[in-house]
Amino acid sequence: MIFNIQRYSTHDGPGIRTVVFMKGCSLGCRWCQNPESRARTEDVLLDPRLCLDGCSLCQKAAPGVIERALNGVIIHREKLNETHITALRECCPTQALTVCGEEKSVDEIMATVLRDKPFYDRSGGGLTLSGGEPFMNPTLAIALLKASHDAGIHTAVETCLHVPWRYIEPALPYIDLFLADLKHVDPAVFRQWTDGSAKRVLDNLRRIAAAGKPMTIRVPLIQGFNADEASIRAITAFAADELHAQDIHFLPYHTLGMNKYNLLGLPYSAPDKPLNAPELLDAAQRIAREKGLTATLRG
């Protein structure tokens, strides 16, 4: 199950890349900018601003699941099944209602990836798996990475690493670069903001470093969570001293994904304003450089 294939990306690894976004994640990060990636099944998104007055096509496609009320269209998401999803996928003429998620075979995905191989070869680019968490579907992830590796295409994985090691280890021979999240090293804070285990992530990071795989550490900086000097020092110390990493990217929090929660009918519990802390961002880069890391600020 994937939800997007983005060609000509220049922000998800070196060179020009094709990014395959896979559905499913075992974390519940409050600030997640891709909430439509969390479930391993399809999601239905609704933007009532695009609805046509008097249109009832979605109601006819999913009777008993979608209804019109005085305050607009209501989706009874707990009643959705595969028959409804199939009917809704192509029913809306304005794309007010869309279905996120589609099953594709390895061959279908690789047909898109291989179209741009000349661009990868010229720019040092390649395939990046993203999500969600790619290793939530290890069979597909391994197959795509191996197929790309066999085709001479550079491979990268954007990952939170919150999965069992047995999901990751078989893919190691086919991964050229890990773009690995290191959100926090404090177990209690990590669990409070992500519903996950920091120990699982840190242990996986250590195993990847021990395997000698190239790794770029990525740190989303969220106010109230880790956007403070003490947290940044602890994170950079772990990256430098335990992982012997060379590169670290700081990603200041933004709210560009906030509206997706409305489209999914979900509450948004992260800060409602972007991180505005230029002095802290300067300090983060300085702290990282003091630990021997090459620090990059990513928008």
UniProtKB/TrEMBL annotation:
Necessary cofactors: [4Fe-4S] cluster
Keyword Oxidoreductase: yes
EC number, UniProt record: 1.97.1.4
Alphabetical UniProt keywords: 4Fe-4S, Iron, Iron-sulfur, Metal-binding, Oxidoreductase, S-adenosyl-L-methionine
Record domain Radical SAM core: where: 11-290
InterPro entries associated with the record: Aldolase_TIM, BssD/PflA/YjjW, Organic_radical-activating, Organic_radical_activase, Radical_activat_CS, rSAM, rSAM_sf
Record PROSITE patterns: RADICAL_ACTIVATING, RADICAL_SAM
Molecular-function annotations in GO: 4 iron, 4 sulfur cluster binding; [formate-C-acetyltransferase]-activating enzyme activity; metal ion binding
Gene3D superfamilies listed in its UniProt record: Aldolase class I (3.20.20.70)
Keyword Metal-binding: yes
Class of enzymatic activity (EC top level): oxidoreductase
Family: Belongs to the organic radical-activating enzymes family.
NCBIfam families, sorted: PFLE_PFLC
Name of the featured protein: Glycyl-radical enzyme activating protein family
Source organism (scientific name): Enterobacter lignolyticus (strain SCF1)
